[in-house]
Write a structure and sequence with these properties.
Elements: H1 3-10, H2 15-46, H3 50-69, E1 77-79, E2 85-87
Length: 96
């Protein structure tokens, strides 16, 4: 059960208590976000080559896709400047 569930279950009408619970909810969300960022940073420190490996994997996927389709001009896939790719909406179902 999350804090928001507790708040809803209590059906609080006291605005001071309601405000405190809202602040607690925001604080818990921020703590989760900070912990996630710290974990990402620790992983990047432990495996500094991870970003390069991910980038190479993306490039290999794009190359395989080009070999399969012949080119990228069919516009089923979009590639941005960072090497990220995504399927355009009408074609996503083909790969699910």
């Amino acid at each position: 059960m999350e804090l928001i569930d507790v708040k809803n279950e209590l059906k609080i009408s006291n605005s001071k208590l309601d405000n405190k619970l809202n602040r607690l909810i925001l604080l818990s969300e921020k703590m989760v976000e900070m912990e996630t960022q710290r974990t990402i940073q620790e992983v990047n420190e432990m495996f500094p080559e991870a970003e390069a490996i991910i980038y190479q994997a993306r490039l290999m996927f794009i190359e395989d896709y080009m070999n399969y389709t012949g080119n990228l001009s069919d516009k089923k896939i979009e590639v941005n400047s960072k090497g990220s790719y995504y399927m355009l909406a009408p074609y996503r179902k083909e790969f699910v």
